[in-house]
């Protein structure tokens, strides 16, 4: 079931002799609380046009279709998630949703050939968006396009975002068997911007990120075959200090990227034994990164790399192989 609190003069389902929109211009919010999947779908489908609507999800709920989560045109719906919404879908597109989760894993998608676009995912203390592909299909493609993944916040009296201190939120976690594409998106979280990889020692999948802004403590690439990051801006405004990049793909390529903070390059927890990092036409705060100055901005001495014999790191900058030392 669900409960409804309305601060406008018109009830959600109330109509006059014409329609149910005579309070269209009312600026009051609508709050709906749901405790089961059927009520969630019903609340989304009946969201009113013109009034911002928050649907509070108090339980762990399962949904079988992206269509059930897409609000009617002209509505402004936010899913305030206390539990977790898990969607099982394949060969489908989820478009235009907003989620707000203060803790845990508020929104999870399980399926292959999934596209998520024009959506916002806000999380606190854990992971804002979780993607799992258990299809065992190497040609499966998961796409995140024009999305915002962000740290949990509230709004002050002037409508400005006030980020909360729940801990280090991760933006996106994905376990691909195929390819993960992230394009035209913003990831703005205190913890890991993304963690992509099957979390096993077996190579699986690929990662491509294009035209994306990442403001986070770091990112983690784990045991995918290749990671290609193009026109990506890396920043870390939350705290002082360097950000990190766990580079666990066989080949990790950074093309036309801008780095605004120093970076500690590391190998992922599972880490491929032979790791190549290629940095091409990238800049550090506007300064071109070259084979001669790369170690001024990036630290490769982390113990998981080949400097202690565990991994074999090959570093190339603009096509030139750079020899690393422990100095």
Spatial shape: globular
Instruction: Give the mean pLDDT.
Output: 82
**Major sheet summary line:** 21 strands, mixed
Would you report the number of β strands?
33
Report the C-alpha radius of gyration, rounded: 22 Å
The helix content is: under 10%
Number of helices: 2
Strand residues, percent: over 45%
Distance between the termini: 64 Å
Oligomeric state of the chains in view: single chain
pLDDT < 50 stretches: 1-14, 20-28, 306-310
Structural class, from helix and strand content? mainly beta
Task: List descriptors.
mainly beta, ten-stranded parallel beta sheet, disordered N terminus, globular, 47% strand, 327 residues, 33 strands
Care to describe what's here?
The protein is mostly beta strands and 327 residues long. It has 2 helices and 33 strands. Helix 1 (37-45) links the parallel strand 2 and strand 3 (52-57). 39% of the residues are buried. Residues 1-14, 20-28 and 306-310 have low confidence and may be disordered.
SSE arrangement:
Layout: E1 2-6, E2 30-34, H1 37-45, E3 52-57, E4 61-63, E5 76-81, E6 85-88, E7 92-95, E8 98-101, E9 107-110, E10 114-117, E11 120-123, E12 127-132, E13 141-145, E14 148-151, E15 153-155, E16 161-163, E17 170-175, E18 179-183, E19 186-188, E20 192-196, E21 206-215, E22 218-222, E23 226-235, E24 243-248, E25 251-255, E26 258-259, E27 263-266, E28 274-280, E29 283-284, E30 287-288, H2 294-297, E31 298-299, E32 312-317, E33 320-322
Parallel strand pairs: 2-3, 3-5, 4-6, 5-8, 6-9, 7-10, 8-11, 9-12, 10-13, 11-14, 12-17, 13-18, 14-19, 17-20, 18-21, 19-21, 20-22, 21-23, 22-24, 23-25, 23-26, 24-27, 25-28, 26-29, 27-31, 28-32
Antiparallel strand pairs: 1-2, 15-16, 29-30, 32-33
